[in-house]
Amino acid sequence: xxxxxxxxxxxxxxxxxxxxxxxxxxxxxxxxxxxxxxxxxxxxxxxxxxxxxxxxxxxxxxxxxxxxxxxxxxxxxxxxxxxxxxxxxxxxxxxxxxxxxxxxxxxxxxxxxxxxxxxxxxxxxxxxxxxxxxxxxxxxxxxxxxxxxxxxxxxxxxxxxxxxxxxxxxxxxxxxxxxxxxxxxxxxxxxxxxxxxxxxxxxxxxxxxxxxxxxxxxxxxxxxxx
Length: 226
What we know:
Strand order of the largest sheet: 5-4-1-6-7-8
Structural class: alpha/beta
Oligomer: single chain
Number of strands: 8
Order of helices and strands: EEHHHHHEHEHEHEHEE
Low-confidence stretches: none
Number of helices: 9
């Protein structure tokens, strides 16, 4: 079934779903590579793994290093990223209209991301979202992070809407796993970041959307529980 109206609340992943942050991360990785005498990394090599997090991006940027060595680079990676956060980021086409459509319908929306909360909060004022975003849960806000359902459950509690009446939109399998575990309807955002061979049909989302513009129509959203 599809919804006749927008859901009472929509929750979104951030990187790869609302915001294209890939170039910020490419510049971050290349600054670290340059400091070590390495050539610049092509954006297309890093872009597919942005939604997988800092460790996945470091694995692409420094494939010759042992996992333990790359793990030790995470604080440096986040510090460099923080110094330029948002400089090259942009909203995906159609996101502005989609959020406005939700707001006009009286729906609330928020963000549940695995990005550290302090970094996600730096982005909100750049976009004018401080008052519009009803809730923000980061990867370090709680004791668990996606694919655990706790971040979505707490976001729903804070926004004042039962989890089964919210819809979660994300571009990574962990997003859909978290939503399913939280009994929250989900949408796979096909415009986001995916490594080659990662098939969103296998994620078992309630529905998929090719672009944010698709979600301008209430019928494109999965039906939330009454």
